Amino acid sequence: MKTLLKIFGVILLLCIALIVAAPFLIPTDTIFNKVSEEVQKTTGRTLTINGDKTLSVFPALKLELNDVHFANMQTGSRADMASMQQLAVHIPWFSLFGGEFKLDKFVINEPDILLETDKNGKANWQLFDAVAEQPIEQPIEQAEPGEAIKLPANFDIELGEVAIYGGTFTYLDGQTGAKQQISDLELAILLPSLRKTLEVKGGVTYMQERFELDVKLDTPAKAIEGQAFNVSQNLDSRLVELTFNGSIAKQGQDIKGQLALNGESVKNIAKWQGVDLNAKYNAFNAFSVNGKMHLLGEKFKLEELTATLDELQIKGKSEISLGNRLAINANVDLGMLDLNPYLPDAVAKKEQPTEGDSKPAEPIVWDDTQIDLSALKAQDANVVIRSSGLIANDIKLGANQFTVALNKGVAKLSLDSFSAYEGAGKGVITIDAQNAPYKIATNFNLTDINAQPLLTDATGFDKVLGRGSLNWNLSTAGQSQKSFIDALNGKLAFEFADGAVKGANIAEMVRKGKEIISGNFGAASEGLDTGFEEAEQTDFSALTGSFNFIKGVGRNTDLSLISPLIRISGEGDVDLPLTKVDYRLVTGIVDSIEGQGTTDDSTGFKIPLRIKGPFHDVGIKLDVSNALKDEAKKKLDDAKEKAKEKAKDKVKDKLKGLFG
């Protein structure tokens, strides 16, 4: 027994001695040359070592190579496709003595890896051209530049696990010059065979943001040969989570599958990209995109799209051309579209004073901040959009459909149909942003509209009640709200029925004026100069008119208001740049009342009415002095007429007596 133990001890010592001595007995250069020979045989590229080479044999055979360089393709932008501070290669013992060379594990430290295409589209990761050129028993399809090759059936690579720590990974498109780079690599790549699943797990840093990823690719041999292969990808970060399950073909030129993308904040993503959205607290936050995607060359399609942004719900499909000029075609349903979180606050809208607030109304000031519409020149689009409702500032629309056509900086928004304010309408807005100042033209026709809520929501003016039509054809040019107002030209017309004008009872004011003219000066104590009073209104059966705008000043000459008690005609100016109005109405009390449907235009007593002042403090004043002159002139004319009649009667009487 002791002898047996001694023999065992001697054998153990010999094994230990062999392990210690093996690195000195096995020539390191021989192993490296074997590795380098296989690399060049497989890829056609050279593998060079400028640093030290060390070999250890326990617990496994491991070759450490320092300052390693792997050659790039001849048409590449630099000499090396990859370089690394250290490469540790784990080699199975049996691989050295067997007929097939295998690698068990790679450990790469601080690599600098470049994936690129040359100007002809050939990719430097086409590593197996040399294999395809080798004479073998079966025929092989030769690859053209930029195309995949056909691998021999008996060719394979078994790398086991590849671990990458640190370094950078760069992609360079030799045709467009586009460049992307990731850094701080921490990846584990499992490649048991070219005909088995390739798996990549770990993390990378892109533009100072950390991304964790898990990618699975079945049969890498298919990818090398340009055949379609399946891929699944999960990417997670602080900013976004992306999942893709689908297939890739034609060396990445044909990608299709199911895409899911979501994140907590669009604002954070924009900030990461160096863009400050300057958005409201409730805008551009959480988002999600789900749908079937297909990228074929420069065409990107999304079908069965469902997306969310904040409270918005979006469904539809789209096609995007990613060539030299971005082009978008889409057909989407936005559901209930509330644009208020994404619109700037209206600066020209007057705040309504609260009850008991003695603070006087403030003048309206148009915003002169420069507006930048140059982004409209960067892309083309043809988008059909539907929604069950739309809210923009205070404007509220019902079900609507509009088309956005964008071509070389000219945007045309066609409101194909919409229902709102109990009516309907159509219209077109054209924005020409090719050059500054920008040009805007609008042409709208609204019918059977409820006037008060429309005007209240659109302009803050709530003084007109009634139903009718409103149409306009307006144009302007500028780069700010103020400049657009200053340059406004065109025509606006309206026609309303069975309503009222709030703020003043004009019929009552005219009666008071008539009493004063008749000598009842007690009416003056009640006051004829007044502002708008919410409790007062002037009823009408018809209200029509039009404004012609020149440089922001609207001129009206055809106002007509018909009511049971009065007839009103008027003319004057609405000065939008200076936010003031100067208007003169001529009112007449109807001689007889026939109700709202009367067609009697006769008026007995007429008196002018002046509406004048800034928008925030408009005043109404009866022009009694002119009315007195008109009344005196009328009485004088009546007296003259009566005198003429008396004279005629006397002459007739004398003639009768003379020729009796």
Q: Would you kindly provide a brief summary of this structure?
A:
The protein has 660 residues and is α+β, with helices and mostly antiparallel strands. A hairpin with a 4-residue loop joins strand 16 (312-321) and strand 17. The longest helix has 36 residues, at 624-659.
Verbal overview:
- The protein is an alpha+beta fold and 660 residues long.
- The protein is 19% helix and 47% strand.
- It contains 10 helices and 34 strands.
- The strands form 2 sheets. The protein has a 31-stranded mixed beta sheet that branches. A 3-stranded mixed beta sheet has the order 18-20-21.
- A hairpin with a 4-residue loop joins strand 16 and strand 17.
- The longest helix has 36 residues, at 624-659.
- The radius of gyration is 43 Å and the shape is elongated.
- The termini are far apart.
- Mean pLDDT is 77; it is low at 1-25, 136-143, 347-353, 521-525, 527-532, 593-602 and 654-660.
